[in-house]
Design a protein that fits this description.
Blueprint lengths: L7 H5 L4 E12 L10 H6 L12 E4 L2 H12 L7 E15 L3 H7 L12 H12 L4 E5 L6 E5 L9 E10 L2
Parallel strand pairs: 3-4
Antiparallel strand pairs: 1-3, 2-5, 3-6, 4-5
Length: about 170
């Protein structure tokens, strides 16, 4: 039986987690000047953001997870050259969906977050965005690892995202 979507009050009622650390983003080389742009995800959507509703920046804790995510979404297309960006984040309002207690409270299973159908995760992202969370900490659907989904338009003034480096890389 498919999991039902949590109620908006349930999402808004989850205590936010603080998070700081280094994360990575792999993007096409021709977009190297747009590492911290949400334009692409807003236009096309992503696992946690419905297209044309709001944008998100998708990052991973490890470069290998970034590569797996890009390869999984390429679906047989030829991959161009890429840059690997590293960012340092300090966030105050993160919804931690890697925490099993949080998932239980929301009535979700870990498998719900990595399913091929993005309907539930996009709706969950919308609810979290509307509740004012700055980011989601989520399991990768492409490889073992953790991803960070940033909602820049919800960034608290006391939070920060700092671009550390942008380096050319091979897939």
């Amino acid at each position: 039986m498919p999991t039902q979507l949590p109620k908006p009050k349930a999402v808004a009622g989850i205590p936010a987690r603080r998070l700081q650390g280094q994360f990575y983003r792999l993007i096409a080389d021709h977009l190297r000047d747009q590492v911290l742009s949400t334009e692409g995800s807003q236009r096309y959507g992503g696992r946690y953001n419905p297209k044309e509703r709001f944008g998100a920046i998708y990052c991973s804790e490890q470069p290998a997870t970034c590569r797996a995510e890009v390869q999984a979404t390429a679906a047989g297309r030829t991959l161009s050259s890429f840059v690997l960006a590293s960012v340092k984040v300090r966030l105050n309002r993160v919804l931690d969906l890697t925490d099993r207690a949080v998932l239980h409270r929301l009535g979700l299973r870990p498998t719900d977050l990595v399913a091929p159908d993005w309907g539930l995760t996009q709706e969950l992202g919308r609810l979290a965005h509307e509740a004012g969370f700055e980011a989601l900490l989520v399991p990768s659907a492409a490889a073992p690892g953790t991803n960070l989904v940033l909602f820049l338009d919800n960034l608290d003034p006391a939070s920060s995202i700092e671009l550390l480096a942008v380096d050319r890389t091979e897939m």
